[in-house]
Design goal:
13% of the residues lie in helices and 35% in strands. It is globular, with a radius of gyration of 16 Å. The chain is mainly beta and 147 residues long. Strand 1 and strand 2 form a beta hairpin. Strands 3, 4, 6, 7 and 8 form a five-stranded antiparallel β-sheet that branches. It has a three-stranded antiparallel β-sheet with strand order 1-2-5, with no helix packed on it. It has helices at 2-16, 26-29; strands spanning 54-63, 66-74, 83-90, 97-103, 109-114, 122-128, 137-138, 142-144. The protein is built from two helices and eight strands, in the order H-H-E-E-E-E-E-E-E-E.
């Protein structure tokens, strides 16, 4: 309930606040906000001015014991046949570690089979590396658990 209220308040504040203060939401969501894009970036631009890639993601329960984490990397030059890093964090206070490297399809789609712990939660996110046109980008954070 607190997360929903925080998200609604954050969205209301982002509309009222200047663009510089809207970037404070990155710690809560675990990914770069899309509102920070300010046009095209040149190849000599500093890291802060490069836009992030848009990475969509979702968890799909395929069967009783199989969960797939999948999504798409969007961007002007297609992110075709490139590496997408899947990172996992154990618990809220853990650090992000490489879980698996997967290769995107010709359209930028990717997928990875993930597991669930016996106790606690595992958090997952997808990461693309920095390039000349884009900064390091993150997907939304998803978690798995066992009932």
């Amino acid at each position: 309930m607190n997360r929903i209220i925080t998200g609604v308040i954050g969205l209301a504040m982002a509309g009222l606040a200047p663009l510089a203060t809207a970037s404070t939401a990155t710690a809560a969501t675990g990914h770069e906000p899309a509102a920070g894009r300010t046009g095209t970036a040149s190849t000599t631009a500093p890291r802060e001015s490069l836009p992030p890639r848009e990475i969509t993601s979702k968890m799909v329960k395929v069967s009783a014991h199989k969960i797939v984490f999948k999504g798409k990397v969007k961007g002007a030059p297609k992110y075709a046949n490139k590496i997408v890093r899947i990172e996992r964090r154990v618990g809220k206070g853990g650090s992000w570690k490489l879980y698996q490297k997967v290769r995107s399809t010709d359209l930028g789609n990717w997928k990875c089979q993930v597991g669930a712990p016996r106790t606690g939660k595992w958090y997952f996110r997808a990461v693309t590396p920095k390039t000349n046109n884009y900064r390091k980008s993150y997907s939304d954070v998803w978690y798995t658990y066992t009932m």
